[in-house]
Amino acid sequence: MYHLIKILAKIELLSGENTRNKPIVNGYRPLFNFKDEKTKISGRIDLIEMPLFEPGMKVLFK
Length: 62
Known about the structure:
Blueprint: E1 10-12, E2 24-25, E3 31-33, E4 40-42, E5 52-53, E6 58-60
């Protein structure tokens, strides 16, 4: 059985050495690692009102 969880989030995509250098597009499917946990969950990022999210950007989704 699968559960759908929707989360509104503040996202900051870091830029610089040893970080992501490509933008995230709507529908991106990352693997989420939870701090201090051994749980890894696949997910989907749906961007609201923007086609892509560039490294170095900070956005608060409401």
